[in-house]
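Appendix B, Record 12. Input sequence as logged:
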Amino acid sequence: QVQLVESGGGLVQAGGSLRLSCAASGSGFSINAMGWYRQAPGKQRELVATITSGGRTNYADSVKGRFTTSRDNAKRTVYLQLNSLKPEDTAVYYCNADVEVSTVRRYIYWGQGTQVTVLT
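Logged structural output:
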């Protein structure tokens, strides 16, 4: 069983920074791409950033230049550094992982979400 456990959310003033972490636990699998999504109240979940197993990244236009994602494959952990935070970044942030259990079994797993609230 694969679990993704997130941490690092919280309250921060506008202009501040946070660092989110998402660690995968379990055994017998490998992880391909990992990603961060967010969902604000009354809005649909949206992509924030993705990172491949080789470290290639992709970002939503709204966070480019402010957020940085990275990963430690040995720890099976992905990070999201959030800088220059704005009130509109307030949302529940979710990580996900493209997990390969075998050559024919591949699943997407989600973390439980962590709340980020940016105060004006």
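The radius of gyration is 14 Å.
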